């Protein structure tokens, strides 16, 4: 940069810092500011070189064009205006602010009292005004050059009915991988290495769902306890990959990772956090949005001083404001068009559908996504709950959206624990049509899972009945107390072969239930070979061996991974496991798409479901049932899934075989590597205790 930077008026669009090959256009929205200063820093972001007032103000956007600026320019903003918390305004030009549209950053946040707009410890708390400069402690925004050669890269565009999600943490997945070079472990580049991709692709999954990778902040309270925000649900910048996951500190590293995943046939889904920011409540720091235009960016209570906290994090983004809505949708389009992302999982997505009157499936954000030619073409997955009134909205999102279905998780765990949740599980096995079958939505809208990053791993579901979160430093009070888990008689690790054999079978039972159900299955990375968090069901702050995937897989882990690969092959082999229409159980002539079978071999009656001791039932999916509105016969193989959660063997009489003359057992969780065997209709089959058997029609 020259000592006195040349400047012209520039344009109010696009927002952010945009390199056009000749210079950089800077544009920042703030409806209530009185003055905006652009602060330029040296390459490392340590020394402030110059302050430039953005004198042009168009449509509530402050802007200027710097012909001498280049990619790599480090910058921040100081925004002037009223400091009147009771009116919703918290401007403080002593605080350096990140650009909400920044595509890159340099440096990291170092917590200091100067990062707060008020004087920490003052008698009047956030009503006070702090005059210290926060720049020495702040990361800086950085201008980037978006140029990248994608070559022959092509998105897989996997159909929803064939999609199998695999949730993982970029750093935790490769931190201990022996084939990943040490400098690349825990990075985007590490995730893109051949050995890692070979494992993921070899499982048969079709998409990786990455925990948050947008720039986020480590909470001061965690750092004080020697911990970190490992999961990353504390975003402060919605356009930039977090440098902590970059081995090279290049934006291109993220793009290279995506290209390698696509080349392996894997879609990339980002877990994104647009419901709140890292600035917290009225006593939080001033890092970006609060200092730029607090009254526009956040939902405030009527007194304007305090924040609506439907997220449980202290603040809630105000997506009812058009510029905030624009920022979120601009961010999503950026990740799709510039970074080639295939879809998103939205944390606490009910927040995004909230208007001042509450949740609205026709709200501004959801309508924006539905009509947008870019966003409507990618996978959109909602976590359909938040902490606000009416926040639980599973099944309540509009067409085009898939949703995490926690009722599938709870029903599966409860049934195999022996709680007798047979009727509830039956509904979940049918893609929860009681919740999702409306407005033309399809079975894939139900994202089924048994485990996710939040909660026990699969190994811990069968090894612990109680959470063990002492390492989090919250006196074991954090994390959900009801996990519907069963330790098989021993809390934690066991040396008893019988206990371990039962645990292995229970894991196979739950994986089989997940992969054989209608809907979209989601797996948690590491469950395929028994990853444990030692009973911690809220490892959000454990950036260590508790959360890192242990790749030293033993014999049991190898066997479980082989079983999962076999399950996924069966799911892809039999179309009736991934139907595009909801199973209704209604007759079409002499054909029912799904029929429920009791141990006697007869179709179950409504009163049969009410038996308190019901632990065994069968689900018969008729492959001859129509698969589309044209009522064209599917002519697929019929399947019979028999589940027995009882602690004893139950004789089951096999029903008639639709489209065949005998049943062929192709999977049995009591004999995971056993051979297929055939049985005629009417035969008695001894269902092993706590097991699942899959039969296919044969002729």
Q: Can you tell me the number of structural domains?
A: 3
Major β-sheet profile = 8 strands, parallel, barrel
User: Structural class of the helices, strands and pairings?
Assistant: alpha/beta
If helices are DSSP runs of H or I spanning 4 or more residues, what is the number of helices?
A: 14
Shape: elongated
At the fourth level of CATH, the homologous superfamily of the largest domain is Glycosidases
CATH domain topology of the largest domain: TIM Barrel
Overall radius of gyration: 27 Å
CATH architectural designation of the largest domain: Alpha-Beta Barrel
Helix content: 10-25%
End-to-end Cα distance? 78 Å
Q: What's the β-strand tally?
A: 31
Residue windows where pLDDT falls under 50 for at least 5 positions: none
Strand order of the largest sheet: 12-13-14-15-18-19-20-21
Query: What is the residue-averaged pLDDT?
Result: 96
- What is the level 1 CATH name of the largest domain? Alpha Beta
**Portion in strands:** 15-25%
Summarize the structure.
The protein is α/β, with parallel strands linked by helices and 699 residues long. The protein has three domains: 16-142, Immunoglobulin-like (Sandwich); 162-273 and 323-352 and 360-576, Alpha-Beta Barrel (TIM Barrel); 582-698, Sandwich (Immunoglobulin-like). The protein has 14 helices and 31 strands.
């Amino acid at each position: 940069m020259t000592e006195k930077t040349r400047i012209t008026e520039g344009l109010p669009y696009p927002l952010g810092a945009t390199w056009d090959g000749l210079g950089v256009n800077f544009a920042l929205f703030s409806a209530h500011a009185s003055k905006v200063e652009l602060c330029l820093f040296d390459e490392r972001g340590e020394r402030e070189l110059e302050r430039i007032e953005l004198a042009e103000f168009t449509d509530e956007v402050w802007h200027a064009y710097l012909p001498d600026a280049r990619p790599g320019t480090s910058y921040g903003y100081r925004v002037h205006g009223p400091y009147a918390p009771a009116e919703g305004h918290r401007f403080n030009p002593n605080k350096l602010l990140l650009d909400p549209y920044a595509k890159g950053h340099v440096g990291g946040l170092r917590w200091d009292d100067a990062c707060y707009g008020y004087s920490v410890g003052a008698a009047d708390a956030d009503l006070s005004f702090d005059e210290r400069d926060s720049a020495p402690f702040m990361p800086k925004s950085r201008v980037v050059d978006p140029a990248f050669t994608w070559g022959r890269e092509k998105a897989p565009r996997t159909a929803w009915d064939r999609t199998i999600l695999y949730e993982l943490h970029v750093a935790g997945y490769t931190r201990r991988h022996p084939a990943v070079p040490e400098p690349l472990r825990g990075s985007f580049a590490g995730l893109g290495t051949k050995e890692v991709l070979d494992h993921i692709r070899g499982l048969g999954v079709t998409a990786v769902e990455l925990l948050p990778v947008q720039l986020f902040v480590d909470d001061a309270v965690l750092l004080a306890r020697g911990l970190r925000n490992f999961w990353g649900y504390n975003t402060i910048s919605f356009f930039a990959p977090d440098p902590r996951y970059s081995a090279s500190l290049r934006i291109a590293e993220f793009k290279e990772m995506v290209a390698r995943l696509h080349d392996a046939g894997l879609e990339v889904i980002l877990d994104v956090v647009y419901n709140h920011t890292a600035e917290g409540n009225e006593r939080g720091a001033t890092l970006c949005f609060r200092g730029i235009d607090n009254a526009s960016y956040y939902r405030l209570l009527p007194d304007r001083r305090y924040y609506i906290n439907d997220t449980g994090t202290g603040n809630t983004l105000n997506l009812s404001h058009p510029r905030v809505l624009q920022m979120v949708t601009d961010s999503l389009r950026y990740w799709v068009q510039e970074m080639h992302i295939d879809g998103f999982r939205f944390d606490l997505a009910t927040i995004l559908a909230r208007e001042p009157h509450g949740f609205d499936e026709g709200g501004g954000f959801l309508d924006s996504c539905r009509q947008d030619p870019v966003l409507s073409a990618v996978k959109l997955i909602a976590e359909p709950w938040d902490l606000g009134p009416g926040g639980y909205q599973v099944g309540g999102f509009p067409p085009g959206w898939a949703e995490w279905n926690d009722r599938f998780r709870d029903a599966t765990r409860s049934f195999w624990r022996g709680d007798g949740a047979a009727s509830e599980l039956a509904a979940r096995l049918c893609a929860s049509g009681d919740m999702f079958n409306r407005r033309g939505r399809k079975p894939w809208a139900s994202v089924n899972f048994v485990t996710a990053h939040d909660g026990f791993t699969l190994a811990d579901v069968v090894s612990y009945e109680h959470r063990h979160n002492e390492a989090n430093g919250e006196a074991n009070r954090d994390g959900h107390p009801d996990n519907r888990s069963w330790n098989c008689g021993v809390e934690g690790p066991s040396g008893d072969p019988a206990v371990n054999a039962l645990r292995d079978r229970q894991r196979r039972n739950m994986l089989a239930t997940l992969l054989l159900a209608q809907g979209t299955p989601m797996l948690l990375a590491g469950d395929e070979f028994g990853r444990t968090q030692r009973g911690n069901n809220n490892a959000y702050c454990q950036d260590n061996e508790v959360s890192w995937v242990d790749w030293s897989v033993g014999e049991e882990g190898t066997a479980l991974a082989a079983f999962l690969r076999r399950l996924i092959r069966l799911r892809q082999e039999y179309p009736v496991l991934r139907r595009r229409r909801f199973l209704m159980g209604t007759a079409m002539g002499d054909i029912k798409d799904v029929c429920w079978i009791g141990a006697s071999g007869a179709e179950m009656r409504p009163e049969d479901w009410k038996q308190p001791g019901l632990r065994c039932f069968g689900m018969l999916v008729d492959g001859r049932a129509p698969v589309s509105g044209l009522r064209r016969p599917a002519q697929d193989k019929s399947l019979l899934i028999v589940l027995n959660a009882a602690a004893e063997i139950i004789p089951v009489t096999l029903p008639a075989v639709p489209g065949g003359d005998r049943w062929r057992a192709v999977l049995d969780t009591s004999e995971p590597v056993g051979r297929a065997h055939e049985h005629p209709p009417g035969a008695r089959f001894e269902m092993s205790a706590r097991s699942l058997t899959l039969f296919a029609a044969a002729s």
